[in-house]
Specification:
The complex is a heterodimer of chains A (164) and B (722).
Chain A: H1 2-9, E1 17-24, E2 27-32, E3 36-41, E4 55-61, E5 64-70, H2 71-74, E6 87-93, E7 96-102, E8 104-111, E9 116-117, E10 131-137, E11 140-145, H3 147-152
Parallel strand pairs in A: 2-11, 5-7
Antiparallel strand pairs in A: 1-2, 1-8, 3-6, 4-5, 6-7, 9-10, 10-11
Chain B: H1 4-27, H2 35-55, H3 58-75, H4 83-104, H5 111-129, H6 133-143, H7 157-168, E1 172-177, H8 181-194, E2 195-202, E3 206-213, H9 217-224, E4 233-237, H10 252-255, H11 259-265, H12 269-283, H13 289-293, H14 295-310, H15 317-342, H16 350-373, E5 375-377, H17 379-382, H18 385-395, E6 400-405, E7 410-412, H19 413-434, H20 438-443, E8 450-459, E9 462-469, H21 476-485, H22 496-501, H23 524-533, E10 537-543, E11 547-555, E12 560-568, E13 571-576, E14 580-584, E15 591-593, E16 599-603, E17 606-612, H24 613-616, E18 630-636, E19 639-645, E20 647-655, E21 669-674, E22 680-684, H25 686-706, H26 715-718
Parallel strand pairs in B: 6-8, 13-22, 17-19
Antiparallel strand pairs in B: 1-3, 1-4, 2-3, 5-7, 8-9, 9-11, 10-11, 12-13, 12-20, 14-18, 15-16, 16-17, 18-19, 21-22
The chains are: A mainly beta (164), B alpha+beta (722).
Chain lengths: 164, 722
Amino acid sequence: MSEMNVANVAAVDADSREFLVFSLGEEEYAIDILKVQEIRGYENVTRIANAPDFIKGVTNLRGVIVPIVDLRIKFHLDKVEYGGQTVVIVVNVGQRVVGIVVDGVSDVMTLTPEQIKPAPEFGVTLSADFLSGLGSLEDRMLVLVDIDKLLTSEEMALVESVKE
Amino acid sequence: MDFSDFYETFFEEAEELLADMERHLLELDLEAPDPEQLNAIFRAAHSIKGGAGTFGFDVLQQTTHLFENLLDHTRRGELTLRRDIVDTFLETKDMLNDQLDAYRQGAEPDPEAFARICKVLQQIALDEMGQDLDGGAPAAGAATPAPEAAPEPEASPEAESAPLAAAEGANLVVALLGVGDKDRELLIEELGHLGEIKGQDGDGQRYEVSLATASGRDEIEAVMCFIVEPEQLEIREVDASASQPEPVPATVPQAEAAAPQAEAAAPQAEAAAPQAEAAAEASQPASPAAPAAKPKPAAPAKSAAKGGESTSIRVPVNKVDQIINLVGELIITQSMLDQTVSELDNVSNGALVNGMSLLQRNARDLQESVMSIRMVPMDYVFSRFPRLVRDLAKKLDKDVELVTEGESTELDKSLTERIIDPLTHLVRNSLDHGIESPEAREAAGKPATGRLTLSAQHQGGNILIEVIDDGAGLNRDKLLAKARENGLAVSDAMSDDEVWQLIFAPGFSTAKEVSDVSGRGVGMDVVKRNIQEMGGHVEILSRPGQGTTTRIVLPLTLAILDGMSIKVGEEVFILPLSAVLESLQPRQEDLYAMAGDDVVLKVRDEYLPVVAVHQALDVTGACTEPTQCIAVIVQGEGRRYALLVDDLLGQQQVVVKNLETNYRKVPGVSAATILGDGSVALILDIAGLHRLSQGKQQAAHDQRRQAPSPYLPQPEKEVEPS
């Protein structure tokens, strides 16, 4: 990945941002790289009873208990398999650390403001509220996810809602 | 130089000093005040004043200045202490606390309060001694040139020479290195308070002040360090003659030094020479044994006090927590290695196996030591009650004696902080509702002075804190009447224990009148909730006419837990060992089905609700037939349950990890921990588990009601009236 980074550095200007690109099924998504703490394999997850199905449980990240969310289940993907290629992206959201399960991590991209298009009003599974836009890169389209908003949203049930 | 970095240190120190001051004030015996205590109070005020001056906290400085002067008169016996004066002193101490808080928050203290307290203090000075305070200070200085030396209690003939010698000559030379003019003035003023300045000379680079004082060098250093760095200070004894009242142990060899040597050592020979002679003269009349004997009683006390200062360090709690976390990790890694090693052949890997067991022992020791850092004695909590009880008893016109027991019992610091509020509430309750007025007590044939006992003791992995009063006890009839008034379901047949539990119901108060002390009806339920949140519980024991005991049972620490690992299906859970009473294999004849799906298990004539863990936590592949499972009898929130589990794996100490840090509260689960293999296991919350399983049963039940099954002909009949 470092090679790609180097290649991208040339294109960096003041307003461009770097994104980590990951795949869920056939689609490519991207999140702000500054939110990413680390990438690790999917292993040793302890189930939590009575939690939504996309919350796989909690795992031990060097002494810290971290919840693991499977975005594939959340986004209603047909094929959800766990194997050697299954990757967990550990992100920092606010004061919290959360792991998200994805099919794979492909690369790190630098997007200029011109390359980021506003997100259209989407369907039901992924509200436009959780998107910061669409990134167009030649023939590829990246769905830019506002991971902060997504993971702290009520429907993710990761955070204690105020009402309780 | 920017002092703001040191603000926090000053605030913390000042707070400690004020706490000390309060303790001494409360302990003072008015008939025969202990001079050492008076000194300690004075020193506390003085040190705060010094710091306040340095940091420019004017109001604080002025208040302490007035206070200090009064204290100075007190310790010299010019002001006779009375109860009301001590009250005023305590009030002043509170005021200082308020001012400190205000400065801490970057605000200016309340000027009206300041003006008032100044007036009160001045008034005392006028009334008691007929002199104005501001004028009083210099006058006092002139009257007794060596104030520090005066309060020495042993006024034996040889001791009498002490003030004389100290007054005649300097015994310390304090050199200020590279101190600016302004700071120097401040420092010299400070030194003036500590003793008498005999001479001063020098320049900005090195300025020397010779001083006649009874204070030790450490004491001077402590005061000066509010203003300058320790490196900027050089203190040496010029003549530590035997007549010095409180020689520090290190000066003893020097005490034998001849006068000429002392002279040579002193640059300010003019000051030193007569003083040295005086010292020599002064020591002559004393019996030869006296100089040697004298320092001995003073020295241990001094060094003990200093030992307390220099042997402890202030560390932010998060640093300690980090160490605890790391040690927890180390333990986990160690047990992982242990597992691997245990699979190896013992004979060919003997050295490795030995090394591992050594590592295990060391790691455990390390963990224990680290955990003990967090432990603080209960004295930390109890020490704030003498004041509260004293003030409250006065307000309520009651005579109350406070007794504390087990102050040295240790408890996790985070818990001590959280126990203060509930305990304060209980103490207030006992004073207000429990202990009767002196008249009522005498009428009941009890001593007029009520007794309130705070005690702490260890009991297994728990700490037991009790608030015991010898008051009227709880009134069963009144409680029941009140409960009916509040619309609670009660009956006369309820046991005493159940009746006592009523006072924990929200909005319950039996006080006849609402006072500003207690009786607003909020409180006991909050107390109970707070204590439950800490993983503890409250019990009440009460006997009419004899008093009430409120017992709080708390785990020693929240950071580690003795757990029992259990297996349900393929999943491992941890039960707090303190909750586990026993385990057994249920027999069919002991299981009874109750209305609906509830099942109870009869254990020694007690019927316990059965909670199937696999059902509550949706575990698949677990044993579902109760007679095939193991029933663990556990206690939670004062009730007992029988948990059905597949297997008991063993006992182990686990490091408690908060689930809420990164996730949220999970019903039926209190926290998580990391097992030896690095995986996470959930720690079960027994009462929560029961609620969860009831909810599940209810849901299942409702579902069946909607779709009546042919096998349950009339399910409606079994439904409890809702």
